[in-house]
Amino acid sequence: MPAVSLALVEQVLAQAEPRVVQVPDDIQFSAIDSGGLHSLAIDESGELYGWGDNTRGRTGLGKNSVKPEAVGPVDGTAFEHIEAANGHSLALTSEGKVFAWGRGTEGQLGDANKVDRSAPTAVALPAEIIALMKIDAFNAHNLGFTKDGSLVTWGFNNVGQLGNGTIDDQATPARVNLASGVAAIRLFAAGSNHSLAVGSDGQIYQWGQHKGSFVPPTTAPEPISLPEGAGTIVIVDAGHDHSAALDHHGNLYTWGQNEYGQLGTGTTEPEVLPVIVKLPN
Description:
Strand order of the largest sheet: 1-2-3-4
Number of strands: 20
Shape: globular
Structural class: mainly beta
């Protein structure tokens, strides 16, 4: 477990109920995200803020902080999306460039070096990819979505969560192919040790492994079957050791580990494939 300052622990334990966060004067946030022990925000002008535990440099401040503080100008860049992962952080600019900072020893910062960074550093996108439209991150790997519907991944890859056919970590983004005939992806999500995508064919693809799962990991995207009658998938999300999807009828499907009832199925039995969740009347 990362080292955490006593002051920060006391602050967390003392705050049992939500309360207003102290924000710098005249600042309004337009985006927020929370990671392992830190948080990020973007204000309406695209400036980046961080706070929380700074182990391995993940706040971008060079220090721990119990309130939001400006990370500092990044070449006059305006950010529009952020991802606070477990030990690292990502930010996407309005021009489609990606910056990363924090823990980098598994390649998750994407700058071709496996070292930590205490300030936002440009991710080295492949030459043929001018910009990313969306990004997602969870534990120590990242997913990115291009304008033409391509998917790129980089970072930690111990159980195939990058989907590149190996279990080798990857220090720069590289394209992932879903299946023959699938021209693009529509949706994607990064879990702790697994990843999800929905292709232009409407199929959900999964790779990596639900943490603690008895199902062997897969190092390349594989289609998974939904219950008969499922509608078009409009949302997918991936957690620590389980996954969820929502179709256009409003039906919710979950699968993966379930020791704490996280699947919502009324039991604590795991599910290898998606099952529909029965909602209250």
